[in-house]
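Researcher: Let's do a round of design. I'm pasting the structure tokens now; please hold your answer until I've finished.
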């Protein structure tokens, strides 16, 4: 998804303002930042936890990144980003094979709260995006409420936003 963010076609010029909205612990931020460095862009990375923000700082040192410790729903960043990555917190149902212990951390009762959080995060991502820019929304959950449901809700509330097919 990090590479998809950097390859997505924009409407208008890429001014080099890129954002990773839920960046901890920093793996995707490091890849995006490395590509930003090559492309002459700059990445802002937002993480709510100071501990996880420190992990990001360690993996992106010497790359064009500013790490912000903030709630991504209210980051206070200035809108106008060309590219925004939102790998949202989720139930993790899609990573059970890789992380079987996660089945004990989340249950069906957690889904509504996660969906609310995801919807708020995606709404903020759209607010921070410049016209013609792109948001990549992802989760590691196959649950429709956390994926297509969240996207449909945000698109219904903001009809000026267009969904694109990212498979290509």
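Researcher: That's everything. Go ahead.
Model: Designed sequence:
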């Amino acid at each position: 998804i990090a590479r998809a963010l950097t390859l997505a076609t924009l409407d208008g010029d890429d001014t080099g303002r890129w954002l990773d909205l839920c960046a901890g612990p920093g793996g995707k931020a490091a890849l995006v930042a490395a590509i930003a460095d090559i492309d002459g862009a700059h990445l802002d990375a937002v993480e709510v936890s100071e501990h996880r923000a420190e992990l990001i700082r360690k993996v992106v040192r010497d790359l064009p990144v500013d790490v912000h410790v903030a709630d991504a729903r209210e980051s206070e960043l200035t809108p106008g980003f060309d590219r925004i990555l939102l790998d949202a917190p989720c139930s993790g149902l899609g990573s059970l094979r890789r992380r079987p212990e996660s089945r004990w951390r989340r249950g069906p009762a957690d889904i509504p709260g996660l969906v609310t959080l995801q919807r708020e995060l995606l709404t903020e991502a759209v607010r921070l995006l410049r016209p013609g820019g792109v948001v990549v929304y992802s989760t590691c959950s196959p649950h429709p409420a956390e994926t297509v449901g969240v996207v449909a809700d945000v698109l219904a509330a903001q009809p000026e936003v267009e969904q694109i097919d990212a498979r290509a």
